[in-house]
Every structure is written in C-alpha cells, then in structure tokens.
Design a protein that fits this description.
The structure holds three protein chains of three kinds. By secondary structure, chain A is of the alpha/beta class. Chain A has helices spanning 61-68, 91-100, 110-113, 120-130, 135-148, 165-177, 195-212, 224-227, 247-252, 257-265, 273-280, 329-333; strands at 20-32, 35-46, 50-54, 74-81, 84-85, 103-106, 183-187, 215-220, 232-237, 240-246, 320-321. Chain B is built from eleven helices and twelve strands.
Chain lengths: 335, 350, 314
C-alpha cells in the first residue's frame, strides 16, 4: 500500500517563475463575509527588483501588503516567500518567522508606527531585541543600519517627535532592514514627503535592493513616486490586478483603460493631455456591478462584452491586462 | 489668461510687503512678500515645507495660529484692507468674499449634519431663503462642482462620502458665498491621482466661469505648473522667483526653481536617477545676511552670502520695462538654467 | 524614566515631593521622635492647652498630642498605602490584561467592576470588618477591593487605546511577545495614568482611614491615628475648639501634596514639555518647518497621548 502524503514543497505553485522571491497566487482577502477586499490576485516579485503596486484609496493595495505579513484575513490563495508558504503560519511558527525578520512591512505613517517614547537607537534595535540578539551585536547592527539609510548617528538618541518627516521615514526604513530581510513591503513610503525628500527615500530603496539583494514592493497611490524606481508596476482596482508589466510600458502605453486614466491624470505640463483625459473619463456614472469587470462602471469603453469577469490577456511578454477590450479600446479612443 | 477680467487694474488680492513673525522670539518666518492676484487669475505658491507659503496663505485668510502674527505689510481684498480687521469683520469677509479649501476636507465638516444642510444653512441665513429654496440652491451648487447625483449627496453625512467628494462639497461651500478669491491650501495633496486631476479641473473651470481669483498653495510643483498662470517660488520665507508659469517652468531664473523642477521631474516616466536637493532649508531666524539658498546652491559664490539679495526683474526683460518676471539671485543673468524638459506626450491615444 | 525626571523638574512637584518625603520620614521615625509615650496618660493634665511639658497640649485622657500625632503617622500612612497597594494589585494588571480577554470574560469583568463601584466605602468596610474581624488590615483590604475598579477602568482605557496603536502592531510584526509589548510600549504610556490614579486613591484612603477610625472601625482604640485623634477631639469641642485642627491639618497637608503631585504627573507630558526639547531641537523642514502657522504633524503624537489619557480619565 502506498500512502502519498503531499509534501509541503509539492504544494508550491508551479506557475511561480524561477527566482520569484514573493509569489502570490489567487489571493482572496475579506474582512467581512461577502465583501472581498482582494480577489484572485496574482503577483511576483524577484530578488533585487522593485515592484510598484499602484491603486486608489480602497483598491486593496494596503491590504495586499498586510496579507503578506499576516495582518489581513486571507480567505483563499497562497502567498510564498522563497517557496515558503506564509499563509499557513500560525501561533509559534508565525512568531518565529516574524522574529527571523526575512519579510518586513513598513507602515505608511512612521509617526504612528514608531513608539513616540523610544529613541532612534532603541526603535531600530527593537526587532533585534525581540529576536534576543545580544546587546553588543545589536549596537553594531543598529549603527550599520543607520549608516545604510544615511541617518546621522548623532540622531540615535532622539525620539521620533524630534525628527523631520524624512528622517522618521528613514528610521522606519532602518528598522526594516536591520534584520537583513529578503523582502520589504513599503506602504506609501513617500506620500507624506515633499519632492526632494521623496526622491531621497526612493533612491535609498533603489540602492538598498541592490546592496542587500532585496525584493521590494512599493505601494503608492502616486504614479510619480513609482515612475523613477519601479521595475514593474501592478495596477490594482477594486481588489483586482487590472494590469501588470514593466513600469515604463505600463505608464506610457497602458493596456487597461484604468491605467490609462491614472497615467493621464498625473499633472503634466502638456496642455494637450487634458483632452486625452476627457476621453478616458466615463461620460456618466453607473453603480459598480457586483460581478464582471471591476472597472466597467467607470469605463468609457464598457459594453455588453464586459459582463463576465475578464481574464488576463498577455499581448506582449511580461505584460498582462484584465480587460475585454485591451486590444481595441485604443482604437475607439481616436474617434 | 483665459478669463476676461472686468477691472484688470484693480487686483482681487493685493499682498504688499508682508512680514510674519513666529513665537515669543518674534522670529521672522515670512519676509517682505508682495504679490497680486487678479480676478480670473490663478496664482500658485510653491515651496518646501517651511518656506513661508502656508503662513502667507494663512495671513490672507486671517487664520494664523496663536503666537504667529503679521508684523508688517498690507493685505487687501479688492478695496478692503484685511490687515487689522477684528474677528467679526473677518468672519463676514471669510464667509462671503473669501473662500478656502484645505488638505483634509473631512475635518472642516460637522460629522453629525448632512453635507447639504451644512451648505444650505449659511445660504438661508445670508440670503434669507426658504428651506426648499435653500435646498434647491444647494443641490444646484453640488451639481456645479461636479458631484454626481447631487440630490442624494445632499442628504449624506460626511463619513458616507469619499475624500474627493468631500473636497467637492467644501468647494461648493466655499463658492456658495460668491467669493472674489478662492484659496486652495494643499487642497488636492491627499487625494488620489484621478480625483486630484478632477478637482484641479473643477477649480480651473470655476475660475473661468465665475472669474474667481485663485490662490493655490502646494508643495507639489507639478500641480501648480498645470493650473496656475503665475508662479511664486518661496524659499526660507522669501519669494525667490516670480513669473508666468510657462516661462518659469521652461526657463527658471533661480537655481532653487531649477532644483525644484529637477526634483519634480515632470512628465518623465522612465527609470532614471532621481534628483534630490542636498542639505536643508535654514531654520527661521538662522539665515545669514546673503542669499538664503546659497549653502545648498550649486552655483553659489562668495558674493552670494555676503549681503542681501533683492528680488529684481529678470534681465534682460523680454520687453523693455516688463517686470513680469522677478528673481532673487545675483547670478541670474549669467546662469543658463535648465527648465523642465519639453513635455513628452503620454502615449495615451497611441 | 524621562516622565519621572520631567515631573521632578516642576517646582510644584518638587514642593509636593518634599512634603511627602517629610510625611514618609514621620511615618518611619515618628514613634521615635515622639517626646513622650503616646499612650501614657497624664491624669493631672487633662485637656490642657499648648505649652509647658506638653508642646501641643493633651487630650481628654491627658495623653501628649504631639507624641500621638507623630506616632500616629505611621499607622495612618501604612493603612492608606496598604489599601492602595491592594487596589493596584487587583486593578492594574487585570485592567491591562482585560484588553485581550475573550468578549464574554470582558463583559463579566466590566459588570463586576460596575457592581463594586456602586458600593459605598464605609458601609462595605463595616460589613467586611464584621465578617473578617475588626482590624486595620481587614478594613484596608476591603477598601482596596473598592478602589480596585478605579485602577481597572483607568488602565483598561489606556491599554485599549494602545492596543490599537500602530507601534504595538509593528512590535507584533517583529514577533514580540505580550510581555515585551507590555514592558516596552504599553507600560510607559499607562504609567502616568496609574500615577495620577494612585495619588488620588492614596488621598481617598487616607481620608477613609480617618473616617473609619472616627467610627471606631479598623484601629483598636489606644493606638493613635490621625483619624482617631480627629474623632476623639471632636467630642471635646466645647473645652478645646482648636484641637481637631491639628490632626486635620496633617491630613490636609498630606492629601494636598498628593493631589499636587498627581496634577504635576498628569500635566507632565515629556513630549511637549519645553525644557525637554533642547535648543538643538530644530528638526528639518518637513517636521517643524510650517512653524506655528499650521497644524504640524509632529504635534500629533503628544496630542494623541493626551487624548488617550483624557479618555482614560473619562
């Protein structure tokens, strides 16, 4: 008699491309029954790569990152980091995995995610203290992390309230990399910063992923903060990935009408772009449909074809879009 | 200048030699700021946090925090001097002749009243309208700011509306008193890209339709570059450059403006080395006697820090005697600064 | 701890601490400092005014008032501390832990606390003494049980706000255990609240000791306490109208100092205390740059804390 026990490795999704550090397959998340925040999300992030996730408020982009670190109720699908299933982790195993610090999540607002009473050195050293790393080693690693994010060591004795916004964000970043993670999820890391500080932090992320071989997922509602650093961009709309591909291609030749609307909505010096924008906006509001294409209710190109849920089409290698009209909406725009 | 201005000679807003001090030490946070906004004109105030743009805007609105005071200068709305008004007079001006929208619309609305009521109540008291009449006007206003299904929105509470809708509600309230000037203080900063574009379009439309004077305050150069006619660049409490937006953006005269443009990288969608401005702005009261940007400026020489630098017309003026552009830089004439790249079209319509 | 240091810098707090130190000294050494035996009856000099051999006069049995006041300090203070200690033990830890209780347990504990809060101090103490026997410890334990809900509610409210704090979530993401989170993140935020409650509770129990002794509960007659003296002196108002003022003054002195200290602790927010922000404060642009003109984001943190604390008091 042969008993076949499925080894955990066998359950690993075969569709994950080789070298994918983070692999998300068919992820469903819902906080309340019947209300799916994320639905059937597929995403990959490779080592040394920055994946931008862009979407509007309520698109589920923060939930996506929280699901990876176990802070959102996953109701279906699988999340693996280096082949290791993260969704199945519970209790002690989850705590051990968190202490190892291979996956780090940077909260959106460092003012809230950094304890206001602790000094920079204690904040940055906290993940190490939790992992019971001896004090001497801790100090060295904290100093290294501060150097890596370009923070003056003289600031180590300050509390977050006495730092600038840019400095606080770098403290949060130092705390995230002090555990030498393999995957970093940054939730709106620059939305509260002005342009110069924003670029500063983005450049840091860009440098660190090379230095540390990190896979970085940057979540943002702002296309400009992704344009310069992201290798690939995934566009999220109402809990679904509507388009994914190389950053520049997605931003300049979007395949999905929503990505096109996003790209055209970013401020531009070109007066002509407003005309494009008008063509991409829906002429009349419709209530969102419960099924089918998530964007149909706002889409100027939507018609009866959009009633079923669109499957991802891949017109070019490395690019995908979930739109029934991906091949032809552009042609109708010219009219 | 899209809108025809009835009286181009008399600006809607005049700020003349404004100085603002902060704290008990009376540190000067805004120094000698002068500008005008004409009816139908959109003027953008841009600069990093702490540049004085927000204090200038708050001075115009008479909403300075305790301890912050206008120490010198005049602000007038049309013919009315705003500096030195008492609180009652201020409230009358703010309710009708001066409208304002801010970054966080939710916090300016009463959570326990429907948004329609919050718009209709002032209409009723100001214009002595009946309840139904006020409701009709409110619904009209909601429709005019692009709120879809304004009848339904009228009976919603603030928490039932999205950030973009709330901002439209606030704009409707701001324009309900038929103001001469609308101040938008980081009004689109917290909004999603798509909604931000819609709200900017709305402001632009209101300006054109109603001949509103628009004062836009933001740290995002891209936003003002898109909608303002005139750009004022603030640095460390001073105006460092002043001129028509298109000209300033295409050929900045101040190194700081150049740096801001480089950092904003307008319309550039490719992977690139992101620019930063090294260093930090000086704390209020700690600036040296000379150019305040000199310590961070790539073009600074010893003369720059030696003595005060005046805001002077850009030379050579395109037209003799044309003072439309001014810059606070000693080396403006000799520097050839890089403007924003010629707008490369986003390939939307292929 | 910075909060303690900040408190200690305030002049009001300094004065209050000095006063309390004096009371503590009296509590420890009062008996030895007493010039005469507090129990010795000088029948020749009953109800005598101040002066002569008896500096502050004598009571109705001819006992030396000064000696009784000094010797009574220890018993009065120890009793109050005992009650508050019991209250803290019963209130603080369950209060913090209750944040993680199951909903049913939370409901039960809250209702139990509500029930306890409806009971009047004195009656409950009388009942407890009736069951457990008349003694100071029994009475103080009863008082402690009644004061516990105060600590429970205050710490629960503070901990509830903190449980949803993002830095607590961040610590959980690091794999931190409950103990680490309590010790590093929660305790510091709850401490000022607990300190304020403690000061108020100490004052309350000092007064309750006085009123219980007044009723003859807890303290056995010959042993001197402030409350006991106040009680007996009131019986001889006609002969010595000024006599109750002496123990009353001591009680007021201690309670007043405690209240001042409590206020100082509540007001001392390390984040917004000016002396705490050294002149090198000057965070760059993004934090303080807007100056006082705009609602600066960096002020949110202390405000949030103050809110949490206000919430805790509500």
């Amino acid at each position: 008699m042969t008993v076949t026990t499925e080894a955990p490795t066998a359950a690993r999704p075969t569709t994950a491309p080789a070298g994918a550090r983070l692999s998300i397959r068919g992820l469903d998340v819902s906080y309340r029954r019947g209300e799916q925040v994320l639905s059937g999300v597929d995403l990959d992030a490779r080592a040394g790569e920055i994946l931008g996730v862009i979407g509007e408020t309520g698109s589920g982009k923060t939930t996506l990152a929280r699901a990876v670190v176990g802070l959102a109720p996953v109701t279906g699908g699988r999340i693996t980091v280096d082949g290791e299933d993260r969704t199945a982790l519970r209790g002690r195993a989850l705590r051990e995995a968190r202490r190892a610090g291979t996956v780090q999540y940077m909260f959106q607002d460092p003012l809230r995610s950094l304890d206001p009473d602790l000094t920079v050195s204690r904040l940055v050293g906290e993940p190490l203290a939790v992992a019971r790393i001896p004090k001497e080693e801790r100090e060295g690693r904290v100093a290294t992390a501060l150097d890596q994010v370009g923070l003056d060591r003289a600031l180590a004795g300050r509390t977050p309230g006495r730092l600038s916004g840019g400095q606080r964000q770098r403290v949060a970043l130092a705390r995230a990399i002090v555990t030498r993670p393999r995957l970093l999820l940054a939730d709106e890391p620059v939305s509260a910063l002005d342009a110069s500080n924003r670029n500063h932090v983005l450049r840091l992320l860009d440098r660190l992923r090379h230095e540390l071989g990190l896979a970085v997922v940057v979540i943002s509602h702002d296309l400009d903060s992704l344009a310069g650093v992201a290798d690939r961009i995934a566009v999220l709309y109402r809990g679904r990935v509507v388009e994914e591909g190389p950053a520049e291609a997605v931003l300049t030749e979007p395949l999905h009408p929503y990505s096109a609307l996003l790209a055209a909505s970013a401020p531009s010096l070109d007066p002509a772009h407003r005309a494009d924008l008008a063509l991409l906006r829906s002429p009349a509001a419709r209530p969102p449909a419960a099924s089918g294409c998530a964007f149909a209710h706002r889409c100027p190109f939507a018609d009866a074809d959009c009633a079923p849920r669109p499957a991802a089409v891949r017109p070019h290698p490395g690019r995908s879009a979930a739109c029934h009209h991906a091949p032809d909406w552009r042609g109708r725009l010219a009219r | 200048m899209p809108a025809a201005t009835p009286t181009p000679e008399r600006p809607a807003l005049t700020v003349d030699g404004l100085h603002v001090t902060v704290g008990r030490g009376r540190t000067e946070a805004v120094r000698d700021v002068s500008f005008t906004v004409r009816a139908g004109e959109a003027v953008g105030l841009v600069g990093e946090s702490g540049s004085g743009k927000t204090l200038t805007c708050r001075s115009v609105l008479g909403l300075l925090a305790p301890g912050v005071a206008v120490s010198a200068g005049r602000i007038s709305l049309g013919d009315t001097a705003l500096t030195g008004l008492d609180e009652r007079a201020w409230q009358q001006v703010r309710g009708s002749r001066l409208g304002a929208v801010f970054q966080d619309p939710g916090s300016y609305l009463n959570p326990s009243l429907t948004v329609g009521r919050q718009l209709a109540e002032p209409l009723r008291t100001r214009h002595r309208l009946s309840r139904t009449e006020a409701r009709r006007r409110a619904v009209e206003l909601f429709a005019s700011v692009g709120l879809r299904d304004p009848e339904t929105v009228h009976d919603r509470y603030p928490h039932e509306l999205s950030g973009g809708m709330l901002q439209r509600v606030l704009i409707a309230i701001a324009v309900s008193g038929e103001p001469e000037l609308l101040v938008a203080d980081e009004a689109t900063t917290a909004l999603d890209t798509v909604v931000q574009a819609e709200v900017l379009d709305l402001l632009d439309r209101l300006r054109a339709e109603r001949g509103l004077a628009l004062l836009l305050v933001t740290h995002d150069l891209a936003v003002v570059a898109e909608v303002s006619d005139r750009l004022l660049v603030f640095y460390a409490g001073e105006i460092v450059e002043d001129g028509p937006t298109a000209e300033v953006v295409a050929a900045p005269a101040h190194p700081y403006t150049e740096a801001l443009l480089r950092v904003a990288s307008l319309g550039d969608r490719g992977r690139r080395e992101l620019a930063v401005i090294p260093g930090r702005p000086p704390e209020p009261g700690t600036a040296g006697p000379g150019c305040r940007f000199a310590p961070r400026c790539a073009y600074a020489t010893d003369v720059c820090s030696a003595g005060p630098v005046a805001l002077a017309p850009v030379a050579p003026a395109p037209v003799p005697g044309d003072h439309r552009r001014a810059v606070r830089c000693l080396r403006a004439a000799e520097l050839a600064l890089q403007g924003a790249a010629t707008p490369d079209r986003t390939e939307v319509p292929a | 701890m910075s909060a303690v240091r900040t408190v200690a810098r305030q002049p009001v707090a300094k004065a209050a601490l000095a006063a309390l130190a004096l009371v503590a000294l009296l509590a420890v050494f009062g008996g030895r400092l007493a010039p005469l035996d507090p129990l010795a009856q000088d029948t020749a000099h009953i109800l005598q005014g101040p002066g002569g051999a008896h500096l502050l006069g004598t009571d109705y049995l001819g006992r030396d008032v000064l000696s009784r006041l000094l010797a009574g300090t220890g018993l009065s203070v120890v009793a109050a501390v005992e009650a508050v200690g019991a209250a803290m033990l019963l209130g603080v830890l369950p209060g913090i832990a209750s944040v993680r209780f199951a909903p049913a347990l939370t409901w039960v504990s809250l209702r139990a606390v509500d029930a306890l809060m409806t009971l009047p101090f004195t009656l409950f103490a009388i009942a407890a003494v009736g069951v457990l026997g008349n003694g100071l410890h029994q009475a103080m334990l009863a008082l402690g049980v009644l004061l516990a809900p105060l600590f429970f509610r205050v710490t629960r409210a503070a901990a509830l706000g903190l449980d949803r704090a993002q830095y607590v979530e961040a610590a959980e993401l690091m794999g931190a255990g409950r103990l680490h989170i309590l010790r590093i993140h929660v305790w510091r935020k709850v401490l000022p609240t607990v300190a304020v409650t403690t000061a108020h509770a100490l004052a309350t129990s000092l007064l309750t000791v006085a009123s219980l002794t007044f009723l003859g509960i807890g303290v056995q007659p010959p042993a001197p306490t402030w409350g006991g003296m106040l009680a007996s002196d009131l019986g001889f108002l006609a002969q010595q109208p000024w006599a109750p003022a002496l123990p009353a003054a001591l009680i007021m002195f201690t309670v007043g100092a405690l209240n001042l200290l409590a206020d100082a602790v509540r007001d001392a927010d390390p984040a917004d205390h000016p002396a705490d922000q050294a002149p090198d404060q000057a965070p760059d642009g993004t934090a303080s740059g807007q100056g006082a003109g705009t609602p600066d984001r960096s002020t949110d943190a202390p405000k949030e804390k103050a809110d949490a604390r206000r919430h805790a008091h509500a």
